[in-house]
Amino acid sequence: MSLKESSEYMEPIISVKDVERVFGKGDRKVQVLSGIDMTIPPHSLTALKGRSGSGKTTLLNLIAGLDKPTKGEIYFRNSLINDYTEKQSSEFRRTNIGIIFQSFGLVPLMTVEENIEFGLRISGVSKEDWKDRIRDSIELVGLTKRAKHRPYELSGGEQQRVAIARAIAPKPSLILADEPTAELDSKMAFHIINAFKELTSNKKTTIIMTTHDPGILEILDHVYTLEDGQIENETQEIF
Ligand SMILES: Nc1ncnc2c1ncn2[C@@H]1O[C@H](COP(=O)(O)OP(=O)(O)OP(=O)(O)O)[C@@H](O)[C@H]1O
Question: Is any atom of ligand 1 closer than 6 Å to the C-beta of 228?
Answer without folding.
Answer: no
